[in-house]
Design a protein that fits this description.
By secondary structure, the chain is of the alpha+beta class. The protein has helices at 2-38, 50-58, 109-116, 125-134, 141-151, 157-167, 172-180, 190-208, and strands at residues 61-66, 71-75, 82-86, 99-102. Strand 2 and strand 3 form a beta hairpin. Helix 3 runs antiparallel to helix 4 (125-134), helix 4 (125-134) packs parallel to helix 6 (157-167) and helix 5 runs parallel beside helix 8 (190-208). The longest helix has 37 residues, at 2-38.
Length: 211
């Protein structure tokens, strides 16, 4: 009986210790999860608000800046990520909106769209940021619209509509004039832009009514 009692006691102590270890690990995980959710930069790919960009940059270490292109690179000591701030639509006379995001983006545009149009965040910052980045690159619009057409059911309705609105493909006159004012020559014609706008309008209509 004495040996049996000792064995049962040892098993109980072992089980209790094992349980406490599990509780400790789970508690630590929940703390880390709350920390990640508390910092919206862990949820959003793009930081587009100016004041939030300043806050985010203060948390990182500046690696290098290019005074000519106005690009800057930062290191996040908490995550080890490389971040980049830049003006994707910048011209000689127009700076455009400033973006801050991790560097680099996924190589494939389809992966970029999947990441930014299915963000876990309640906002559409990622969709807006990616659209702004491609707003001055109409040479990619055909590929982008083709991917959106093929995968439209996979994307959030709000994110897809916001993305199209900020890409500029729906505002042909303003877009074409803007493209003509870029330092480089546009690689798409006005007729190409008209076709892309019609496709984008039909895509927006189908996604809005979900069919």
């Amino acid at each position: 009986m004495g040996i049996f009692f000792v064995c049962r006691t040892s098993n109980l102590i072992y089980s209790t210790a094992h349980f406490l270890v599990i509780v400790l690990i789970f508690g630590t995980y929940r703390c880390e999860l709350r920390y990640i959710l508390h910092n919206d930069y862990s949820i959003n790919m793009y930081v587009i608000q100016y004041h939030r960009q300043l806050e985010r940059i203060r948390e990182m270490v500046t690696l290098r800046k290019n005074e000519e292109t106005l690009e800057a690179f930062y290191h996040d000591p908490k995550t080890g990520q490389l971040w980049k701030s830049f003006f994707p639509n910048r011209t000689a006379t127009y700076s455009g909106p400033k973006l801050l995001r991790p560097e680099p983006l996924p190589d494939k545009i389809e992966s970029q769209l999947e990441l930014c149009l299915n963000s876990d965040s309640d906002s559409d910052k990622d969709a807006i940021g990616l659209a702004i980045e491609y707003a001055s690159k109409p040479e990619y619009w055909n590929e982008i619209i083709t991917i959106l057409e093929a995968n439209r059911k996979q994307y959030s309705r709000a994110s897809l509509l916001v993305f199209l609105n900020h890409l500029g493909v729906l505002t042909l006159k303003q877009t074409h004039q803007y493209v003509k004012n870029l330092a480089h020559s546009p690689s798409v014609s006005e007729e190409d832009l008209k076709k892309l706008r019609k496709r984008a309008q039909w895509l927006r209509f189908k996604k809005y009514f979900s069919f």
